[in-house]
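Read as chain and fold; for instance:
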Amino acid sequence: MMGFFFSLMSHHKAVPTCFVFFFLLSCTCFTSTEAYDALDPNGNITIKWDIISWTPDGYVAVVTMNNFQQYRHIAAPGWSMGWTWAKKEVIWSMMGGQTTEQGDCSKFKGNPPHCCKKDPTVVDLLPGTPYNQQIANCCKGGVLSSWAQDPTNAVASFQVSVGRAGTTNRTVKVPKNFTLKAPGPGYTCGPAKIVPPTKFIQSDKRRVTQALMTWNVTCTYSQFLAQKTPTCCVSLSSFYNDTIVPCPTCACGCQSNSSCVNANTPHLASVVAGKNNFSPLVQCTSHMCPVRVHWHVKLNYKEYWRVKVTVTNFNYRMNYSEWNLVVQHPNFDNLTQLFSFNYKSLTPYGDINDTAMLWGVKFYNDFLNEAGPNGNVQSELLFRKDKSTFTFEKGWAFPRRIYFNGDNCVMPPPDAYPWLPNAGSQKEVSLLVLVLAYLVSLLFYACA
């Protein structure tokens, strides 16, 4: 792309300076919308269909959803899965799940099918469903834990009896156009691929059976598809500087009359209970983020240093259950003690241990309440100093990035970090900032 630009400059001497500016701006400021996550490169949700028996006009299959994402879970009101039938299939019955609509089944006499839609949407059943309608790993209300947090609850299943379909491996056609909502957008599913049949070990551990036919669907997440604006931001402070670095202004959008409410608003409860309880209603702040993570460098010992982490919920309509943080910092390889949070080391870069997953203790602080006096959780981390790498200079004590519930939080600009007192009052200005400032001046001069 840059080669094309310089070729264009060499052949067209009179290219306006404003074009040069906007080209360079597009190369430096826009972010890719790919679903790849550097901290969880292999994370995905895999949907597996196993045909376990044939019927006179179709088959019975068990559909299993595995959340292989390390730190991204699916919260209430849960997942919904959709697809398009390849032929004129119908769903005669289901266990462990149900379709949201039955569709037009007027052509069938007697007992109608469970669903006749060409593009059904399936949801999980709720806890407390009668046992005769359950199968293993069902009936969680669509909630799926992340793989690192709770792998036993990162699986969901339902059974479906399909009619008007093929009755052999050669005549069955796999569904198309799979979709997954959790509960909103964000996931993109690939095509179904036929794979070797799944093998099942029986309870006596002495016999192995296998599915008659199996296909897999892989779904990946993109934060850019999930929401138009970020969902969290990070603020910073330290014991060696009185400056508290706030979240960037308008980090998650700017204030408007319909998007936020002040904490002292009269009749706040009635405002929060508005028409749509699922739409976010955040407290009016400069950053307008539903969640803020504050990292405070608290104490400095001879051989250790201590950090306090506080997560604050500014959303009046959202309780975050089974929340988690992912923090990247070079000193996590020397984490000594953690207070009131669970911890697991993530190693997305092989042997480099600089990424940690933190989440609440069950029945204690794993539930982050909606905005208000109790809408926060906090913990302290104790790190051992590594004399070969440890320093408080140039923002080393602050994290490189933070995720909340799998979404990348907006960090303050590096030149705004709290500096040591002997670092001087004048901060370095990056070369990129100087170049952009120069181009802006040229733009106004050339395009005036």
